[in-house]
Amino acid sequence: MLAAASILLLAGCTEKPETPPGASSGPSLSKAALPYADAPTVENPMSASVIQRDPCDVLTPAQISSLFQGKPEVQPARDTGVAQQCRWADISRGSSIGIQLLYAARDGLSQFYAKKQSNGLWQLLEPVQGYPAVAYGAKDTRQTLGDCSVLVGVADNAVFEVDVNVADAKAGTVDPCKDARMVADLAVTTLKSGA
């Protein structure tokens, strides 16, 4: 547990494109019943309304403190056109964490599964507290840049993303997707508690 906590101290997020691959600001990609494209069914789904909250409240102050060695800079919540996004960064170390509540992904993980062949990174992860998770990206930059994005389906029609960029000194030596999944676990705890 101590090793996991020390890795998390190095965690963070990358600057993401305005529209995450697979997300769309338009209507649902399919009239098919959810899920589709081999996306898993979300057992015990949360209300899709959890995606409508302030993304800066998805991680509590105590959780944020546990993830950084010092007090991180907070980039206020912003609307990217497909998601509400919040970021925390330790500029001096090059690490950051981002949370994106993907309100435009109305088909949940199915939208991303439908386009998985176009991703340079597509890796199924162990579920986060029972919620399906996948690491993905247009390119696989885990070793070169030390970053990873993880999607978590909290309902068949609701998904959030955690973006992590490990400290510059750790890039290529730790798995940023492992860190992103751990941050996602903290986020799910907060979302489930309604805090």
Automatic annotation (TrEMBL):
Pfam families: DUF3558. It comes from the Bacteria. This is DUF3558 domain-containing protein. It comes from Amycolatopsis speibonae. The lineage of its organism: Bacteria, Bacillati, Actinomycetota, Actinomycetes, Pseudonocardiales.
